[in-house]
Amino acid sequence: MKFKFFLLFLLLLKYAGLDAQTVQQVEVAPGVIKLNFGVADKFNPYNFCDQKPAVAAMKALPKGKLPFDIKDILISITDRGAVVEVPLKDDEQLYGFGLQVGSFNQRGLRKKPIVNDNPLNDLGYTHAPIPFYVSNKGYGILINTSRYTTFYCGSTNKLNNGAKALSESNGGNSVEELYKNKANANGSVTADIPGAKGVEVYVFEGPELLQVLQRYNLFSGGGALPAMWGLGVKYRVKADFTQQQVGKMAAYFRDNHMPCDVLGLEPKWQTTAYSCSYVWNPKYFPSPSQFIDTMKQRGFHINLWEHAFVNPASPLYEPLKTKAGNYLVWNGLVPDFADSSASNLFANYHKQTFVEKGISGFKMDECDNSNLAYGSATWSFPEHSSFPSGIDGEQMHQMFGVLYQKAVYNIYKQMNIRTLLDVRASNAFASSYPAALYSDTYDHDEYIRMVTNSGFSGLIWSPEVRESASIKDLMRRSQTAVLSAQTLYNSWYLTNPPWLQINVEKNNKNELLANDKQIEADVRTLLNLRMSLVPYLYNAFADYHFKGIPPFRALIVDYPNDKNVYNISNEYMIGQGLLAAPLTDKADERKVYLPEGVWYDFNTGQKYTGGKEYSITCNYTGLPLFVKEGTILPLAEPVEYITPSSKFEITCRVYGKTASTTLFEDDGVTFNYEKSTYNTVALNYINNKGMAKRSGNYKLKRYNIKGWQVIQ
Amino acid sequence: MKFKFFLLFLLLLKYAGLDAQTVQQVEVAPGVIKLNFGVADKFNPYNFCDQKPAVAAMKALPKGKLPFDIKDILISITDRGAVVEVPLKDDEQLYGFGLQVGSFNQRGLRKKPIVNDNPLNDLGYTHAPIPFYVSNKGYGILINTSRYTTFYCGSTNKLNNGAKALSESNGGNSVEELYKNKANANGSVTADIPGAKGVEVYVFEGPELLQVLQRYNLFSGGGALPAMWGLGVKYRVKADFTQQQVGKMAAYFRDNHMPCDVLGLEPKWQTTAYSCSYVWNPKYFPSPSQFIDTMKQRGFHINLWEHAFVNPASPLYEPLKTKAGNYLVWNGLVPDFADSSASNLFANYHKQTFVEKGISGFKMDECDNSNLAYGSATWSFPEHSSFPSGIDGEQMHQMFGVLYQKAVYNIYKQMNIRTLLDVRASNAFASSYPAALYSDTYDHDEYIRMVTNSGFSGLIWSPEVRESASIKDLMRRSQTAVLSAQTLYNSWYLTNPPWLQINVEKNNKNELLANDKQIEADVRTLLNLRMSLVPYLYNAFADYHFKGIPPFRALIVDYPNDKNVYNISNEYMIGQGLLAAPLTDKADERKVYLPEGVWYDFNTGQKYTGGKEYSITCNYTGLPLFVKEGTILPLAEPVEYITPSSKFEITCRVYGKTASTTLFEDDGVTFNYEKSTYNTVALNYINNKGMAKRSGNYKLKRYNIKGWQVIQ
């Protein structure tokens, strides 16, 4: 009798969904389904996300449809960890895994997104290791884990899985023949998560790829809307510049009418940097407050380099000593950012010492890990580190950059001040943080590919310009910088701007280029083009925030069914209607594929029929940019820097017979837009007539439409 | 009352050593202490080792002494896995971790020895990922695990560990300045073994570094003694050669008196190779038995290329189908070699089909894993694979090469036939397997470094010669090949031997070098030098087997306290008295450090005082070799190939006034030496007189000492 009741009890448990072997499934936001199996880790990326999903905007998206039954996602837990198998169709193309460096279309590859500053070999290592991939068939899969996870993207074949037999091969006579990629008909993406006792999988629906990304960004709170000045030019000065020398550099920019919004200070502003004291070094900056104020008066924002490893000489050391990992980095504490009390201590100190004194942003360095940076293995903490919160070193590595961002961003958020930060590591659900990733790697082709990859994971990527091998290299890199989320010249080891001398050694000896003024003028032209594009870019970022549309994205996002774009990683969309196709120093011509429709060369107005590849060129002072028919490109007269009262005199370039766009208008520096204090300026061109219509609650009219220029 | 008894019970448990928190410690062989904590993994390297420790030889070694208290080795188990911390003194130098490619002295580095065919970036990836390091202070530590393990070799600093404070730094103005290695005073090597619920640590005592290695090799059953013909020259023919073409190549060797003992066949001898059928392809080899016999008559041994992934077309497929992993590789089964019944099936088929027909060895390819070999991610099985035996994919990856070796070696062992195999992966406790590692990487400097590293872990490494960039490159690589454990020319994609045409394309068009006969003669000179060295090398291998002395080893092994050799990875000892210092195509001169004592140039007899560095050169037909004073170098008249009846006419080169050595004499092809069927020929030169004294049970006198040549 008793035994019968027990069986009944088990049966009841099973039907009540309490059976541990059942995958739990719940729609956590419109088109976002969370699967849960086993005991998921506490320190997962979503648990660290404070942002509420932008439910209303998600609801407004067309309903998604998965190309498979969600029940066919298999999750298993073994002694080794968790394994997730997601169905994959033969013709699907896969993208994502964060800021990938070496690859774009991930179909057929094995990827291990691990945080790393030196992502060689295309293992999947990256500054932003996001366990999230998307399919051109209109869905995305995110494994909500901060454990090191390997994704086999249709690159394995199971025994007895009924997959098609491979054609047999009896080898070859050359390495190429022997090792040629044997295409594989495997029907799944498999994620291997060693150590996990359970796992959460987030499924993002489309119906199209673009909507998948919109849902992801909106679920993460909406994309970041940087301070408007963040879209201007950032220049980082030499590490050993004194307050006076920075002042001189500031004067150089204004005297020579080189646009610049932000000056970044490098390590030596602190008394000790490896590890950090977070204390102004009086030798270099005897009067920091006065310095910040003077700079502000001249229209410069000041950004401070730092990292999060706390030196014994820092006022933060004692308070953080009990809230840190059990290993030191450069003799500095590793704050336990997984514990909000540690983050708050760190943030409050920064708030009082820097932000309240007028510091506009930080460059958060060294928060990634390293393989073997420059022969040293003492970079960062070991993976077996333990922290008071209970997070281990492996998980902390993956999350460190995003937790650091969160700590610093919250200072600004609480003060109702916007910013644009720099950071060297990030992770999932971080779309809302206005922090641009940067890298010490410097391959221009990779930097371009990273723009296209950034859009798959809610990231802002800054392909910075440092030294150059040639004038051509400098100009091509500058074009890419102008056509990216953040235009940054990082001169931390250069006395003079790189356009006055590309060579490091000569630059630091003040041996300037013979034609320095000509190069300076050419760079000025490019920077002015950047400033002309600011209203357009600002609107693209507003779309990122309110609609989740990545401002910079691969062509596949807009054209998911065009086979010709499956593997294009050196062209990308900017906002609604611009297509960038940067050149490098390798050649003065390049192939550009233009998708269906009609396109116009930004520089010449030349018209192209889409669906074809063209060979194009672009001189140094133009932009390798194409405009889609139906676009209004609002080009502003360039300003040298942006303040809340900056006005933009705009000429609307109309491409085609009927075109439209919008402009987003607000103060550019507060979060008041969250309380609807902003305007939308609708621009329409119909029947040979341009019309601007402003709506909204913001008082100031910052955009003046002074003319229309039609290109047909 | 009951509670008291319970406490008493706990107390008893504790003193009975059953407390799970106590590290168990037991001396498992003379000078080898095993520590055990928690529940160690079943599939660990030592569990797979069949060989009994050579206890008598170990007992004969001087007693070791650890530079720390063994109780100071700390082991902890957390949710994440196991962590082992081993004391480390400031002045210790560390070596090992298997066939490391990018680094030599591991002090200060982070190393993750993971099996891999493409070990870039110096992460620690290697063909032979051995979790074993040794210290110049006279001990070795082996973590007996097949899990992916990370070693922090004094590269981390703990919070509150009382380590010396680092000098603070406030950054620099250049990458070099900023990132220079900040030396670290940490007092431990830490091994991180994620996933482990327990761990075994083997501590190998010295007293000196050499004895540590001796103990390791003897504990593994003694080093491998290859078939004597294995010390001759191996040549691998082009993959698409037919039986007839191989015959022609054989004739070339004999007609031109180029020494050659082994011809290796590449993939196309099988009906299907990726994956393997293990069935002769009648198109290329219509009569294999006849072919093998003919070759044998001409003094050639035949070696067959294969790998272990079993094609559906193979007779092995059906029997192995239930004894294989759940993922396929190139549509082939992955045999569960951790299950002896699978190994036996595989071995028995090979025995009957090949070995009993006269096949002398195999080249066991593809048993390593790959990052992303040639753009394909379908290389090998995923880490989350499961196998019927219970081993998982990660552990199987680490052990696959060694289990494959074991399966194939046992065929020969059972048949009382010796061999020398080729293999692309190995692991710990494999010293007794006569299998030479090889690699697709081809950097000559790395190949030389791998000779020095091989000796720290009981490995045989074969720096093979393929194509060359220049004649100089060919000759320098040939010299290194001659001065290595196996002299191998791998021409799997070359129609003609590389010395007739170094360029691949021209070679395959039969466009030979203008001076091909001259180059051939130069290579012949080198190969003849190899054949002259065979008795010396054979004796070095006998010392490897009976005494555990690595035949090829870094200078630090013989001179552990000479600071000048701490980082020398481009010189190595061969046998008792030879020091090799190979040159590459980069320069015709190089620096050679000669340790204390007196040394002689092998080619010129020039005398050098040790303890100093010299600039030396070596022409193409000499050997970059130095002989230690007190050495007798027994040089044989070169034979073209070696049979059990080969006799060696030996001239003893005596270096110095008093010198000695031994020669090991047996049939060279059976294991009868294990039953003492061998001779030792003691060679002594004292008071201006040379004496040879033979002792032992072997009947045939293979060495004839025909003269003494004194160099002083």
Summarize the structure.
The structure is a homodimer. The first copy, chain A, is about 25% helix and about 25% strand. With about 700 residues, chain A is an alpha+beta fold.
Total count of strands of chain A: 35
Segments of chain A where pLDDT lies below 50 for 5+ residues? 10-20, 162-167
Q: Characterize the main sheet of chain A.
A: 8 strands, parallel
Q: Would you state the CATH class of the largest domain in chain A? A: Alpha Beta
Proportion in helices of chain A: 10-25%
Shape verdict of chain A: globular
**CATH arch. level architecture of the largest domain in chain A:** Alpha-Beta Barrel
Going by CATH, the homologous superfamily of the largest domain in chain A would be Glycosidases
Query: Under CATH, the topology of the largest domain in chain A is which?
Result: TIM Barrel
Please tell me how large the radius of gyration of chain A is. Answer: 26 Å
Descriptive overview:
Two copies of one chain form a homodimer. The first copy, chain A, has 712 residues and is of the alpha+beta class. Chain A has two domains: 19-164 and 175-219, Immunoglobulin-like (Sandwich); 228-535, Glycosidases (TIM Barrel, Alpha-Beta Barrel). In chain A, 23% of the residues lie in helices and 24% in strands. Chain A contains 14 helices and 35 strands. An eight-stranded parallel sheet of chain A has the order 20-19-18-17-15-14-13-21. In chain A, strands 1-2-12-8-7-5 form a six-stranded antiparallel sheet. The longest helix of chain A has 32 residues, at 516-547. In chain A, 60% of the residues are buried. At the A-B interface, strand 9, strand 10, helix 3, strand 11 and strand 16 of A face strand 9, strand 10, helix 3, strand 11 and strand 16 of B. Strand 10 of chain A pairs antiparallel with strand 16 (327-328) of chain B, so a sheet runs across the interface. Chains A, B: Residues 1-20 form the signal peptide. Chains A, B: Keywords: Glycosidase, Hydrolase, Signal.
